[in-house]
Amino acid sequence: MGSERTEEPILITYSDEEALDEEEGGSRNFDDLEPVSWINDEDTDVPFFHRVDSDQIIYEAKKKRCKMIGKYVMGDLLGEGSYGKVKEVLDSETLCRRAVKILKKRKLRRIPNGEQNVQREITLLKKLCHRNVIGLLDVLVNDEKEKMYLVMEFCVGGLQDMLESTPQKRFPFWQAHGYFCQLMDGLQYLHSQRIIHKDIKPGNLLLTLSGILKISDLGVAEALDFFAEDDTCFTGQGSPAFQPPEIANGHEKFLGFKVDIWSSGVTLYNITTGLYPFEGDNIFRLFENIGKGEYTIPDEIENPLRDLLHGMLQKDPIKRFTLQQIRQHPWFLRKPPQTLEEVPVPPLRGDELHNMTVLPYLMDYHYAEDPASVQPQYYTEHERNAWAEGQNPQCYGSEWQEPVSNMLSKEGSPKKYPDELNYGSPDRHQTEESGESTSDSSKRKSKRKTTSCISVKKFPPCKQS
Amino acid sequence: MSSMPHNSSSQPSSGQKDVECTFGPEPGLYQTMSMLGQCCGDVGQVYLAIFKPLDIPIALKKFNVDKAKDEMENIQNEIILTRQLRHPNVVTMNAAFVMESHICVVSPLMAFGSCRDLLNRHFSDGLPELAIAYILKDILYALDYIHKKGYIHRAVRASHILVNENGQAVLSGLRYACKVVKHGRWQRNVHSFPPTTARNLNWLSPELLEQNLQGYNEKSDIYSLGVTACELANGMAPFQDHPPTLMLTEKVRGFAPVLLDCTTTCPQFADTGQENQNAQADSGVGDSVESNGNSLEGGPLSTRRFTDYFHRFSELCLLRDPELRPTAGQLIDHSFFKLPRRMNAPPLPQLLHPVIPLTKEVIACQNDQDFFTVTERLSDLDLNSCDWEF
Q1: What CA–CA distance (Å, rounded) separates A254 from A232?
Q2: Which of A56, A138, A263, B306 holds its CA 20 to 30 A away from the CA of B41?
């Protein structure tokens, strides 16, 4: 079947967004047309598969339709967390770039403590104000769509993206020092506000355009009771590789502030060496190793830093450094010389400057009143694949691609590329709903995003090109 | 580039040094007279006040701390920065103190008010070109000085340009300024988006508004100066009636505002003139000129003609690429600023006729009247408008 169709180029309407995103709404160009099923219909017997050259598959760039949430103009996707997407927005009054975390109630209900965590994050962030803690500026609710929008300060990327963009997965010491100092500033503020973050890791440390570090994702943070005698906590929900021995060993209660010190220590270890102090094939092995508290520091790490890492990664929380001890530590006090080149924020979808993604939507809104005047843009599968090579998926929320969650991934092996294409689209929706919270899925998603197509059609005007 | 101001003669408070030590932070030393205007929305009010020990008029700016909130940090920065700067074309401060729930800032009285006042009251189609030359040259001295000190002003606009009794222009609005020096290093570019800047958006440069990793530098102020040049010449600020998002896309696409005169507004010139004015401008030009020029056909805007020097000066300032824009120091030597001398222009106060500066004598004469007439007379003096921003 379909072999006669392949004689001509095929038009695929291509979208940066997910095809079935309800937010997009509206009708699709070719919705009414029957999808061509042969492309990924592997179950049916296809006796003879006509080869289509990637140069012959033609995509039409999706029109950037301007969409507003309150006073905010929506832009493109910045990343994805377990709770939902993070998109860029522009405040149409102040023209300030912002990020919005879109939370779907439907999704939240399926995550243990999901709604609770979000509520807690909102109440916490609302009362916090520090240059090294992500600022929550606005909360919008759409009851009809069961969505919540958390408008936050805009960040260009996170330390995790930056690490992953380098071959050795680490920063030069001077750069790491700068981030670590800011992390300690932010952490000191949080602790002064009786808040224990519980999930400090490179993936939750974001950077603004000016390079200011912002501690983000307070989803599992705990605010100590006002009348609590000390910082005793009972629950830990952070990322496994960054958990301290007391949690790994399953202690009933532990000192909260020291949890953040430990995970900051693991973070410092990670961003200076490119390694993790503790690893394991699965979470049990990992926790077993953390529980023993035995680790080695690579030889190239020399003394003041070595000593600081040892102090922060003390198995006994009582002996572990306090924030004050860290701040007085020689490594903290003395900025390492700027010898090696700075690791930059990796480009987003090929854009090194991280330009406003809202601009194309605004251009469409302000200048494209006459649809005839706007030439549709076409490009081929071949070109798209070439672009995809240089891509770097970015994430905002808690679900970063990191070795630990890779190890712990509950899902099977990542799906292969052809499956992701999901032409015909009905089952796209399913994948979108099922695959959560694992790095594999987030990797796959971002990849899939670039290849989502609405439908495949003959493309009459292009018959002879 | 020398930072010699073009008009360094006495300020209203000449012999400033002795005077300065006597300006104390005691509220009792100042007698508030009438309100001159507001600044940063309704957060601050500017009052005409008398400094009792010397019986001289001063400007007293009061910020309501309870209302300030977001602006609070800016106000603090402004006070600290103003203290660090000392230049005849940059606003000065005699004293700052807290009174009840207000922060009070005492500065010399600027007898002609802000350029926005002048436009609002007397020059709705724009100031005379020679007056603009005087004013912009002073502001370039101010910018040159501020830039060399390592700051970007980020809010150059007519309402932040004050003119004193002698016709000397003074740059104010320092609360939006930011440092170029960070950790002891001179940054090539900065990236911070000025907070609470909504009112200044129309004047800001495309590269600042873009908020990408490229960042911006002190050339951003030069763009704002270009927008201000258009504002002073046209009477209204460019993009005034545009929604901010359209202003943004226009600037990003390279459309720059123009000086409105017969070369830029008349249909017969539209083809040639306009393109020459602005090679990089595209379809946006037409819309904006139309919406900007309220009195296009037959009005003064379409009959007058600015000199080519002025046109060229504004185009240089408004170049899309910050690298190509000259520095403040380079622009001081632009031939536009040689016009007043070449044309034997009278000093600025005469060019601003019939505006009467708010001098000691004027105030004294008003003091004879009862209170109500004082305020009435003051409003006649065109100082009751809302754009006094020090």
Answers
A1: 5
A2: A138
pTM (predicted TM-score): 0.75
Instruction: Provide the pLDDT for residue B183.
Output: 77
Sign, CA torsion A196/A201/A202/A204: negative
Chain B residue with Cα closest to A91: B245
Phi then psi dihedrals of residue A130, to 5 deg: -155, 145
Query: Which stretch of DSSP H or E encloses residue A283?
Result: helix A283-292
- In whole angstroms, give the CA distance from residue A125 to residue A411: 32
Cis amide linkage into residue B354, ω under 30° from 0: yes
- Cα A462 to Cα A423: distance, rounded to the nearest angstrom: 20
- Token digits of residue A49: 């598969």
Amino acid at A417: Y
Answer for the pair B154, B196: CB distance below 8 angstroms, yes or no: no
CA distance B283 to B230: 19
Percent helix / strand / coil, chain A, rounded to 5: 35, 15, 45
A208: which chain B residues are within 8 Å (Cβ-Cβ)?
191
**Gap between the Cα atoms of B106 and B54, Å rounded:** 14
**Does A93 contact chain B (CB < 8 Å)?**
yes
SS (H, E, C) A47-73: CCCCCCCHHHEEEEECCCCCCEECCEE
Residue B368, pLDDT score: 55
Q: For residues B285 and B256, is the Cβ–Cβ distance under 8 A?
A: no
In angstroms, how far apart are the furthest CA atoms of chain A? 79
Under an 8 A CB cutoff, do B243 and A97 touch?
no
Tokens 């006040």 -> residue: B49
Q: B8 pLDDT exceeds 50?
A: no
Q: Is pLDDT at A322 greater than 90 in this prediction?
A: yes
Q: Residue A97 corresponds to which tokens in the numbers above?
A: 């770039």
What rounded mean pLDDT belongs to chain A?
Answer: 75
CB B43 within 8 A of CB B62: no
Cβ neighbours of residue A220 under 8 Å, at least 6 residues apart? A117, A198, A199, A237, A238, A398
- How large is the average pLDDT for residues B185-196? 88
Residue B171 contacts residue B160 (beta carbons within 8 Å): yes
**Which secondary structure element, helix H or strand E, spans residue A105, and what is its range?**
helix A105-110
- The answer to whether residue A440 scores a pLDDT higher than 90 is no
Does the pLDDT at position A1 exceed 60? no
Q: How far is CA A273 from CA A132, A184, B61, B134, in A?
A: 24, 19, 55, 60
Q: Write out chain B residues lying below 8 Å of A209, CB-based.
A: 191-193, 211-213, 215
Query: Minimal Cα distance from A366: which residue of B?
Result: B246
Instruction: Write down how long chain B is.
Output: 390
A199 a catalytic residue: yes
Are the C-beta atoms of residues B304 and B261 closer than 8 Å to each other?
yes
Six-digit token pair at A146? Answer: 């069961």
Q: What value, to the nearest 5°, has the Cα angle with vertex A171 and ends A165 and A173?
A: 170
In angstroms, how far is CA A125 from the centroid of its own chain? 19
Using a CB–CB cutoff of 8 Å, tell me whether A373 touches chain B. Answer: no
**Nearest CB to B210 within list A93, A356, A366:** A356
> Which H or E element spans position A286?
helix A283-292
Q: What is the 3-state secondary structure (H, E, C) of B84-144?
A: HCCCCCECCCCEEEEECCEEEEEEECCCCEEHHHHHHHCCCCCCCHHHHHHHHHHHHHHHH
For the stretch A387-420, pLDDT in tens is 665 544 443 433 333 333 333 333 333 333 333 3
- Transcribe B192-239 into DSSP letters: PPPTT-GGGGGGS-HHHHH-STT-B-THHHHHHHHHHHHHHHHSS-TT
A443 is in an annotated binding site: no
pLDDT score recorded for residue B359: 75
What are the residues whose beta carbons fall under 8 Å from the beta carbon of A302, sequence distance 6 or more? Answer: none
